[in-house]
Automatic annotation (TrEMBL):
InterPro entries reported for this sequence: Acyl_CoA_acyltransferase, FkbH_domain, GNAT_dom, HAD-like_sf, HAD_sf, HAD_SF_ppase_IIIC, SGNH_hydro_sf
NCBIfam families per the UniProt record, alphabetical: FkbH, HAD-SF-IIIC
GO molecular function, a single term: acyltransferase activity, transferring groups other than amino-acyl groups
Domain N-acetyltransferase: 455-609
Record's protein name: HAD-superfamily phosphatase, subfamily IIIC/FkbH-like domain-containing protein
Coiled-coil segments on the chain, per record: none
UniProt xrefs under PROSITE patterns: GNAT
Amino acid sequence: MVDATDGFLTNLTAAAKAGSPLGRADLTALAQCDDPAVFRKLGRTLKSATAEATGLTAPKVGVLATYTVGPLEPILRASLAAGGMLPTFTIGDYAAFDLTLSRSDDPLFAPDQDVLFCTLDSSYFLPKDWSGSDVDALTAFITERVRSFRGLLADVVTRGKTTVLAHTVPLPAVVRDGLVSWSGRAKVSRCWAQLNAAILELAEEHSAIAVADFVSTLADEAVAAQDDRLLRFADLPYTDAALMVLAREARRFLQAKTGLSRKVLALDLDNTQWGGVLGEVGAAGVELGGLYPGSAYKEFQRSVLRLRDQGVILALASKNDAEHVEAALTEHPEVLLRPEMFSASAVNWSPKSGNLKAMAAQLSLSPNAFVFMDDSRFERGEVTAALPEVTVIAADGDPAYLVRNLLRHGWFDTLELTDTDRKRPGLYKARAERGNFAEGFQSAEDYLKALEVVVTVAEATPFDVARIAQLAARTNQFNLTGLRFDQAETTTMSDSDDHIVLSCSVADRFGDEGMVGAAWVRKEADAWEVLNLVMSCRVLGRGVEQAMVGWLLRRAKEAGVATLRGTFTPSARNTVSSKLWSQLGFEHTGDRDTTQVHELAVDGAADLVPDSIQLKEK
């Protein structure tokens, strides 16, 4: 737990009041704070701030509750700020939950809404009065209420573009303990478990619905869910501590949806991956495996390995002699994180901030994609001072808490795990090897030809949609218009005769990069318009985006289309993609508000696929 007296609250409050950017290191400290009073206070202060002034993204969030929203709003605002977001809230009417869900014209369902947060309490599923002697009637009522709720939520996502976040609901003690029969109590508890299972199943049945397991998270946090006086006095069914748990789950979801999750976990070695200092005790003397504390470090390595299997890129940042580290990682029988598991490595005596910056450049990633974990307060402070955009996690203290400290804030969350995610660590390791390979050539053209780049462009299939939506959410630099079509919208467009959704995959002599690009195209009678095109930065500089537009030009010629139209909306982060259309020979024909429009006459246009690329189709 982070103590607010460390100064981050003072810094954030002062910056918010002054209309200045909020410090990234202070926001990371806020995310790791467990004091609800801090979140209520800062959330109220941030209400008058703007995303532009604070340097945060601005998701639009609807909140529809079965209870008084009250303190949830400031707590949720501060929690989202901790994840790099300053939301614009639309709050649903009190005591109108079902009615609101049934209306298609409510502002909560606006097309530009990023998420509708449906937050529930037990009163929604329970009768006003019930008999402890008639358990069957009680369970029947609960079952019917959850059936009705599922239907309402399914209707919401099928009639529009709304993404919904719901959550499981704890069974109140007044129901559980109000049943004197053990068999009756078990029956109602089973019914309530089925209620929560039915809510969780919504996420499996509808791609536009996500569900947070509030019940299990609340139990793990060991905080009181309810304050009886607040419930009776103000219809507040959850304590501030419980609302903190809910708000953190919402932050984790929106981080993943808006592309703010991190990609790289950079780890120290001594007293982080094992106990003890390698240079003092030698490889045989470090604590790893066996009894505590070695067992805690072994479990930490096992958890890190699970993250890698799900696409988190591992980097090694250790002040040690490189040959000793290599021997220990290779020869120690209890080591799980072998040298080949790390996509980048910096084992030397240089400042760790410089090493992290160099590894970020090597991987073609920004430092804000990094989470850094180290036991040394000095090293953490040095990295925070030099690279405040890096998320820094403490690894000191009792090693039994290493896994919890790493995982509980969801820095690496993604909406759905894709095949590309699973391959990502290997892809980025190949990127480092590719960079070394480039040093042996006199010109960029020779290097690109030697890479033997193969680009595969195809219309999206149902199996591609999750990855394409993920690219839309996560890609910021090579993102032409900033339109982030989610999974539901992408599915609708790919099924439409009036649109094309494209996927782009890349391979070269170093391996398969997987799906790295996507485009959403509207087909009109005489023109095809690229609504957005995104490309992973890890393949920039190879002409892949040109090959993708070249594929589209070839299809437009075959279809007899007169004009291919490209659009570009400038942002603070996408300047790298600003010249694409002009470089490909498109003419700037005008603007729609802040969006530039570029056009190319299809008939007679030269082929756009670079000579160094072999273009394939599925």
